[in-house]
């Protein structure tokens, strides 16, 4: 595979664009060799869905479009960026149990951390922001080095 691959799509800030962003990302990952049913593919689609939803819902009509960028560096790191032109950075909202929203950034942070990645938000030159997620990439066909196994993974019971 190439040392560096990139893909980008700019979409209108419309709820229908969230599905279009997810579809674009899923197709790009398959083109880059990641099986559609891989856990990483599911994780990336969910992250993009949450970020695109935020770009549509929380820019209050001040960002007519948003851009989803993907970059794969040396088969090691996948970078996901969602850029909009609204200057306000995302913040964690208190989400009451009965609310249907307010948990997007919490979900993104959790998924990113679970994969061993990192999340950053940076301003753009134009006055907007890009929410960036970097995740480790395991190239198809390359074995993953196993981490330390827990007793539960081997079906053993801890001794007390």
From TrEMBL:
Protein keywords: ATP-binding, Kinase, Nucleotide-binding, Serine/threonine-protein kinase, Transferase
Superkingdom assignment: Bacteria
Histidine kinase/HSP90-like ATPase domain ranges (all copies): 11-132
SUPFAM superfamilies xrefs: ATPase domain of HSP90 chaperone/DNA topoisomerase II/histidine kinase
GO molecular-function terms, A-Z: ATP binding
Matches recorded under InterPro entries: Anti-sigma-factor_SerPK, HATPase_C_sf, HATPase_dom
Protein name: ATP-binding protein
């Amino acid at each position: 595979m190439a040392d560096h691959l990139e893909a980008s799509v700019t979409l209108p800030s419309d709820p229908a664009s969230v599905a279009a962003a997810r579809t674009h990302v899923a197709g790009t990952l398959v083109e880059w060799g990641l099986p559609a049913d891989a856990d990483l593919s599911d994780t990336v689609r969910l992250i993009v869905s949450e970020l695109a939803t935020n770009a549509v819902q929380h820019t209050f009509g001040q960002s007519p479009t948003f851009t989803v960028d993907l970059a794969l560096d040396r088969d090691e790191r996948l970078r996901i960026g969602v850029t909009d032109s609204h200057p306000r950075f995302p913040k964690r909202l208190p989400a009451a149990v009965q609310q249907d929203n307010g948990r997007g950034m919490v979900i993104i942070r959790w998924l990113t951390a679970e994969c061993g990645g990192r999340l950053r938000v940076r301003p753009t030159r134009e006055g907007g922001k890009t929410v960036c997620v970097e995740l480790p990439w395991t190239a198809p066909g390359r074995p993953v080095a196993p981490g330390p196994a827990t007793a539960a993974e081997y079906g053993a019971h801890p001794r007390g």
